[in-house]
Design a protein that fits this description.
This protein has 169 residues and is an alpha+beta fold. The chain has two domains: 30 residues, no CATH class; 121 residues, 3-Layer(aba) Sandwich (Protein Transport Mog1p, Chain A). Helix content is 23%, strand content 41%. A hairpin with a 2-residue loop joins β1 and β2. The longest helix has 20 residues. The protein is elongated and about 90 Å long. The chain starts with a helix and ends with a strand.
């Protein structure tokens, strides 16, 4: 074999082998990426405020609030706007969410484990997560359903804005 070809072949082989051995995994890349700054906070001065059962949050003024009581405590709190249904169950449990992609959402200034899925039957986007209740050992269970007619980037931005206003007392 030609000696002039051997050296370039060896160099290429070493480079390829080095790339394969030392290539960072997708998980490591995601963990080391610098987060991009979020969108600037929006003006929520015309939004309504919900405060009950140890939780407070703001929601768009054109949304409708419905509490489904069980005695004196709501068991299901729903905020509904065109294409949106934001549900909080004050006594919700904590558990696995089969079929949901694990993600994190920012609530009360910290990252919270959540799950998201786009329903294959109706195309709705669903986001679920739980938050600890301060006055008991229970959890608040959140479920957010978004109509597929709303662009996902707009829907996620609306969710982010609402979650930025959540307070637990």
């Amino acid at each position: 074999m030609n000696k002039k070809l051997i050296l370039p072949i060896i160099v290429i082989a070493v480079l390829v082998l080095g790339f394969i051995v030392f290539k960072p995994s997708a998980n490591n890349e995601a963990a080391t990426q610098t987060p991009t700054p979020g969108a600037s906070p929006i003006d929520t001065s015309d939004w309504k405020t919900y405060r009950n059962v140890g939780i407070e949050l703001k929601y768009p003024s054109d949304w409708i609030l419905a509490e489904y009581p069980d005695s004196n405590q709501p068991v299901d709190i729903r905020f509904e706007g065109e294409g949106y249904m934001f549900i909080i169950n004050p006594d919700g449990g904590f558990g696995e969410w089969p079929g949901y992609t694990p993600i994190q959402v920012k609530v009360i200034g910290r990252q919270v484990d959540a799950g998201e899925i786009i329903d294959s039957t109706d195309g709705f986007y669903h986001l679920i997560f739980t938050l600890n209740r301060s006055e008991s050992a229970g959890f608040y269970f959140f479920r957010i359903n978004i109509d597929p007619k709303i662009p996902l980037i707009v829907a996620k931005d609306t969710i982010r804005r609402i979650l930025e206003t959540v307070k637990i007392y």
